[in-house]
């Protein structure tokens, strides 16, 4: 009979040492940071419904038509109503616009339509 040498696997301590070499830590070793005072205060941009990238939070209610959506976008300063309506009609996506809340880039009508129809 042929006996093959039996290789043993790494021990628990060896595995932990290798993991630490890769920068891994155990959950109980993680110390959460206390929230800073500046994190709990909203910025003027956040109060206006803008995210850090400068996009504006817009909510499109269910059941509204193209004209109402265009008016909402113009009211929020995201896009001119006439330009938005014209581009939606040009693309033929009037029936694909979806209700919901979106962060939208001001002035980028094609991206706005992509997000509202996606």
TrEMBL record:
Name of the protein in its database record: YceG-like family protein
Naturally occurring in which organism (per UniProt): Neomoorella humiferrea
Lineage of source species: Bacteria, Bacillati, Bacillota, Clostridia, Neomoorellales
